[in-house]
Write a structure and sequence with these properties.
about 525 residues; alpha+beta; Rossmann fold; 11-stranded antiparallel β-sheet; binds nicotinamide-adenine-dinucleotide; binds adenosine-5'-triphosphate; NAD+ kinase activity
């Protein structure tokens, strides 16, 4: 009603204004009285309501238009900020990648002087960039010549030289034993593939391994018994230095003080430099123990020899009953290895003021999973590959898997099984609510970004090799690319025969009773 009155007085005001502007106008002067009367008359039913509705509608429209304009500006600013963060991340990943991903013989170019300098450094955690630049032989191979001072409490500052080894393609024919770096040759316009990256790789020791780290699955009596026996044998027969986790050392000492020679570390920070001490890692357990072992190495990983003491053992080809024969052969070399690629994942927080506030990288051997956690809402994940938009995942989540992980969670979600030596990243949705969402396999060189959109109904959760869950709020993202540090695992036969053995024995792949010979008459 008040609004209606205001509108009436506005009308009157306008009439006065018109009158003043155009000089005295008898018609208007007379009509002024008429208008007054009209206005004072009871209004026709509904007019005020319409005016109220109209003015409210106009206000709403203007608010919406203003919000849309503001939203567009902030979305543009946000997109620019994400692009910047993404570029910084990509740049960092590119810098972390070795210049040449082929691993060949060690050229011995880390001088004794350098070695001497390194040797007086204490075991301190290093930032990733420092670790990368420490790869003195990094251009063409794994540096296995690092020398360091052991600062463990139970070791009297002994200088240990890490055993060096050489990695080469198995069927090398060149006389000088030198691997050709050109994978594709474009000579004279003819395109030929000179070398393939996924050939069988062989590891040959150049100096005998001295330090062995044994990692064991916890809470298993058979593992404890085998570990104690193996430690004794490696010490007495092979004269090796043995490292175990603090928990395992305590277990061994509880059994007997004989195991006093076994070495361990005092705090988590010392684990950062394990790769500089350890020549060989032995795992006793299932696939989970191999994943555990890989997670201990944030940079280069020494060769891993996985013994099977679990139920499935996809990545554990060695039989624990025959450990002596097997370890003898491995310590002597050469051995076939599978270079298992890892993915490097960064969680990028929307709330982080700068890229330095984001959490450090996490390396996974199997996969990183982004799912809905305990939320009952559909996950809503925007996926980008390099500069291309890929899709929006609406379902239970998404798995970004290595080819080694292709037989784990990704397989359960409908992804392909891929030979572990094939370089690539599997993009496998989990229960997508769409009929046409097939899994993808992407090339190794891409960078993927999975973003929880701002309008997402819930949070998402990232987990790394099935562990270490991290919540992703709307606006947060996970950036993932191939890591520079693969996990070299020893093969019982070779990469391919071990892979087929695992899918046959572990997964009973395509197991079906053979059709009998007698049946319908054969076609002539
Ligand atoms: N639905 C699923 O299949 C599912 C669900 C969650 C996690 N996982 C897998 O479990 C892994 C963690 O393993 P864990 O041992 O710590 O947990 P776990 O004890 O729950 O065992 C998971 C199972 O996956 C098998 N496995 C692990 N890596 C494998 C691989 N590369 N190829 C074939 N099988 C493999 C293990 O042998 C084990 O039987 C995760 O990386 C993930 O791949 C699978
Ligand atoms: N040294 C370790 N310290 C702590 N946890 C470990 C260690 N080794 C393995 N684990 C964890 O113990 C769990 C079981 O290990 P693993 O998968 O090797 O044995 P398993 O379950 O008996 O094998 P399988 O799955 O083949 O039956 C995994 O979640 C793994 O992460």
């Amino acid at each position: 009603m008040n609004t209606a009155k205001n509108n009436s007085s506005e009308l009157l005001g306008n009439a006065h204004y018109v009158a003043q502007e155009n000089g005295p106008n008898p018609l208007i002067a007379n009509s002024e009285q008429g208008i007054k009367e009209m206005v004072e008359q009871p209004h026709v039913d509904g007019i005020e309501d319409h005016l109220v509705e109209f003015s409210e509608a106009i206000t709403t429209v203007s608010k919406v238009l203003r919000r849309a304009a503001e939203g567009k500006v902030s979305a543009q600013a946000e997109a620019a900020e994400w692009k910047r963060k993404y570029e910084v991340e990509r740049e960092r990943n590119l810098q972390l990648e070795p210049k040449d991903l082929t691993f060949t013989e060690h050229k011995g170019d880390c001088s004794e002087q350098q070695v001497g300098r390194d040797s007086i450094q204490h075991l301190q955690p290093m930032p990733d960039t420092a670790k990368t630049s420490q790869r003195c032989c990094g251009e063409h191979g794994i540096c296995s010549h690092e020398v360091l001072r052991e600062s463990y409490s139970n070791v009297q500052c002994k200088i240990t030289k890490k055993a060096s080894f050489k990695l080469q393609w198995c069927n090398i024919t060149d006389k000088d034993d030198q691997h050709k770096h050109d994978i594709v040759s474009f000579e004279k316009g003819n395109i030929t593939t000179a070398e393939r990256s996924s050939k069988q790789i062989s590891l040959k020791w150049e100096s005998p391994p001295q330090n062995v780290l044994i990692l064991t699955k916890p809470h298993s009596t058979s593992v404890k018994v085998l570990c104690a026996e193996m430690v004794r044998w490696l010490k007495e027969k092979e004269k090796l230095n043995i490292y175990v986790e603090p928990r395992v050392r305590n277990d061994l000492l509880t059994e007997s003080v004989y195991y006093n020679f076994v070495q361990t570390w005092n705090d988590e920070q010392e684990i950062w430099r394990l790769h500089e001490i350890v020549d060989l890692v032995v795992t006793l357990g299932g696939d989970g123990t191999v994943l555990w072992a890989a997670s201990k190495f944030k940079g280069p990983v020494p060769p891993v020899v996985p013994f099977s003491l679990g139920s499935l053992g996809f990545m554990t080809p060695f039989y624990s009953e025959r450990y002596k024969e097997c370890l003898k052969s491995i310590l002597k070399g050469p051995m076939s290895i599978t270079l298992r690629h890892r993915l490097q994942c960064h969680v990028i927080r929307d709330a982080a003021k700068s890229e330095y506030e984001n959490e450090g990288p996490i390396l996974v051997l199997n996969e990183v999973t982004i799912d809905r956690g305990i939320s009952s809402f559909l996950t809503n994940l925007e996926c980008y590959c390099d500069n291309s938009f890929v899709t929006i995942v609406q379902g239970d989540g998404l798995i970004l898997s290595t080819t080694s992980g292709s037989t784990a969670y990704s397989l359960a979600a409908g992804g392909s099984m891929v030979h572990p030596q094939v370089p690539g990243i599997l993009f496998t949705p989990i229960c997508p609510h769409s009929l046409s969402f097939r899994p993808l396999i992407l090339p190794e060189h891409v960078t993927l970004r999975i973003q929880v959109p701002f309008n997402s109904r819930g949070h998402a959760w990232a987990s790394f090799d099935g562990k270490d869950r991290k919540q992703l709020a709307p606006g947060d993202a996970l950036v993932c690319s191939m890591a520079a540090w693969p996990v070299p695992t020893a093969c019982r036969g070779d990469s391919t025969s071990d892979f087929f053995h695992s899918i046959h024995d572990g997964l009973h792949w395509n197991l079906r009773k053979t059709q009998s010979f007698d049946g319908p008459p054969r076609e002539s």
